[in-house]
Write a structure and sequence with these properties.
The protein is α/β, with parallel strands linked by helices and about 130 residues long. It is built from 3 helices and 6 strands.
Length: about 130
């Protein structure tokens, strides 16, 4: 049975997430993950990464992340594709976004992509 294509996030949610990513008081890295370590290892500054992510989401390539349980809050995902440069190889970053509150604050978790074959990539021009 072929897998279904990923479902896109509603445009209103995507815009709310982009607004939160552009506001330093409404965005943060997931402290319960190794996101900060990944950014440091890849040589990416958090502020620059958040800007790349907000700019990339203009492409409308933000998708619903499948839930493990029905009661779980909806999370969203995308893949940012950084080209090779300086001393770093090309990098595909899987991003999970968890918005909460009104206006939403967004928790961001990152790791090297293992979903590059199931999600379209958003090219980044750093």
């Amino acid at each position: 049975m072929p897998s279904l294509p990923p479902r896109k996030a509603p445009a209103t949610i995507r815009r709310q997430i982009v607004d939160a990513l552009r506001d330093p008081g409404r965005r943060f890295l997931d402290a319960n993950s190794s996101s900060r370590n990944h950014l440091d290892r890849w040589g990416l500054k958090a502020d620059g990464f958040f800007a790349d992510l907000a700019d990339g989401l203009a492409s409308e390539l933000l998708f619903l992340k499948p839930k493990n349980q029905a009661a779980q809050p909806q999370r969203y995902q995308c893949v940012l594709a950084y080209p090779p440069g300086n001393s770093y190889p090309a990098l595909d970053v899987h991003v999970t976004l968890s918005p909460r509150g009104e206006p939403p604050r967004v928790m961001v978790a990152v790791h090297e992509s293992d979903t590059v074959h199931t999600l379209p990539r958003i090219p980044v021009d750093p």
